[in-house]
Write a structure and sequence with these properties.
The chain has 94 residues and is an all-beta fold. It has no helices and 9 strands.
Length: 94
């Protein structure tokens, strides 16, 4: 999650990232659905369902508080989500 703003000639960016415990992420074997419940500073949970339309696949009440943004939503129709097996992700230079 990141928030950017430009104020009085100054660019301000805030972001949060987290390496979370495996128990915070559950998925089914065919990668059709998944649920994430990360620890603080996140709050709530999000659910992925591949059977739904693209703008409804990522739902729930997952939020984060950042300076200048309380309860920033991390789900909803404006966000897109995907679920792929880690072995199929190729990084730079591969």
């Amino acid at each position: 999650m990141d928030v950017s703003e430009y104020n009085a000639g100054i660019s301000i960016e805030r972001y949060a990232s987290l390496a979370m415990p495996a128990a915070s992420f559950r998925y089914n074997a065919n990668l059709r659905t998944a649920t994430v419940r990360p620890p603080a500073p996140f709050s709530g949970a999000a659910h992925f369902d591949r059977a739904k339309k693209a703008n409804r696949r990522w739902s729930g009440n997952l939020t984060i508080d950042l300076p200048g943004l309380a309860g920033g939503p991390l789900t909803g129709s404006l966000l897109r989500a995907g679920l792929v097996h880690a072995g199929s992700v190729r990084g730079p230079g591969r």
